[in-house]
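Sanity check record (used in CI):
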Amino acid sequence: MALDVKHTALLVMDVQNGIVSRYLQGETTLRPFQDAVEAARQAGMQVIFVRVGFSDGFPEVSPRNKMFSHLAQAGNMTVSSDTTQIHPALAPRPHEPIVTKYRVSAFAGSNLEVILRAKDIKHLVLCGIATSGVVLSTLREAADKDYELTVLKDACLDADPEVHRVLVEKVFPRQAEVTTVAEWTKSLA
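Expected output for Nicotinamidase-related amidase:
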């Protein structure tokens, strides 16, 4: 059965320069992401890019937030910084929204849910960096919001391969279909 692309969106999460640079291991690292984006575009599916970034002065960052307070101290993750721009290998097209979030989940402090409602999206296809960060947090919140979910396991990267394996093999299947980009692409035909 073919996927209902009219009510589905591909979320490409945290594939921004400052994060991708930590994971690049050659020219093929981003290939699964590129293949997923191209397949979604060819199918006429909504592609939405999600990035993490902060205002100048980092007013959104509490000193109690262990993860983000380090970013604020480094001072290089403002919305205008090169580190928060989507990596050029995945350049968004003009009609593809770029959502800025202020926490780990793609929903946290962003306008993502407003866009999804406006586009009548019911099914989210998730890919991103890192599996144990934005993908996990977004999947959990999206499941609680009753979205149908798919995770593209080869278009998710994590610093810890074992954590990635456990999430895609044992945790994510409880709330989402977990598949590869190639298998997912076949469902678009």
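The chain is about 35% helix and 20% strand. If this sentence no longer matches the regenerated tokens, the check is flagged for review.
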